[in-house]
């Protein structure tokens, strides 16, 4: 069962959460099986991005979609992970060319040093004129060198865009996609009456706490993250710390595609273009990149779509 567990350290400005996507991640992979699936390196990268998107969404008080995108200049041209506020998630990738069995993250998306990471927050109830927030950073490690993995990329993003010290550990394979996030919280309301020396000492103590806890998190191996349950991981890492855990949540795979959205896309394409495709192919088949659902429109469906007197919902494609 997929699980997300939040926790805090009493008396310290540090919070954390751990996610294990198991059955939900296997559903993602099963839906891709008919189309050949992803190469292991691509699969594992998408699994890490899925876990990361759920962690970051759970870290926000935001009603809408968090969309994590990597625009690559290697064989992976685009990798996308999306998580909603109720922790529904989905992933996809556009891959061109062969992917080596031992390909690393940089080989996939930053082959020539032009890859970039974007995080978009798209409100569910967007107001007129309101635009989604988006932050974009180059794919680089904190020292300016090539990015090593998804976790390093996101730690760099959080420092550059959010100014938050963050430690992230991610792992994925054909069975699970998992992640651990540790983050230092900005401390507010320290009081203007406190002396500078007191504030400096408090900041030093907070720095030491985050550094210590982040170090413990860094000792977690990929194998442990993928195979151990959440209580075991938390005890293994933080058994000496004043840890308080909250009620776990249940992420799940879900896709927001629908026949209505596909109809609207065809209307935007235009009648002439739609009929041209029909003439060439006999029908119009559109597949969802995220879940693999196929929507098929024949000549009758397309005619109904563009008939002024016919309600749009009358054009009902076959879905499978």
Please supply descriptive tags for the structure shown above.
single chain, 320 residues, alpha+beta, Hsp33 domain, CBS domain Like, 2 domains, six-stranded mixed sheet, five-stranded antiparallel sheet
Strand and helix layout:
Layout: E1 3-9, E2 14-21, H1 23-33, H2 40-58, E3 64-71, E4 76-84, E5 88-95, H3 105-109, E6 116-123, E7 133-138, H4 150-162, E8 166-172, E9 177-184, H5 196-218, H6 222-227, H7 230-238, E10 243-245, E11 252-253, H8 259-269, H9 271-281, E12 284-287, E13 294-297, H10 299-306, E14 318-319
Parallel strand pairs: 5-11
Antiparallel strand pairs: 1-2, 1-10, 2-9, 3-4, 3-6, 4-5, 6-7, 8-9, 12-13, 13-14
Q: What's the CATH H-level superfamily name of the largest domain?
A: Hsp33 domain
- CATH architecture call of the largest domain: 3-Layer(bab) Sandwich
For the biggest β-sheet, the strand order reads 7-6-3-4-5-11
Oligomer: single chain
Helix count from the secondary structure assignment: 10
Number of strands: 14
> What is the highest CATH level, the class of the largest domain?
Alpha Beta
**Largest sheet features:** 6 strands, mixed
| Percent helix | 25-40%
How far is the N terminus from the C terminus?
A: 26 Å
Strand-pairing-aware structural class: alpha+beta
Number of domains: 2
Q: Can you tell me the residue ranges where pLDDT is under 50 for at least 5 consecutive residues?
A: 189-194
Q: Which sequence of SSEs, written as H and E, runs from N to C?
A: EEHHEEEHEEHEEHHHEEHHEEHE
Overall 3D geometry?
A: elongated
Find the CATH topology of the largest domain: Hsp33 domain
Integer-rounded radius of gyration: 23 Å
Mean pLDDT over all positions = 86
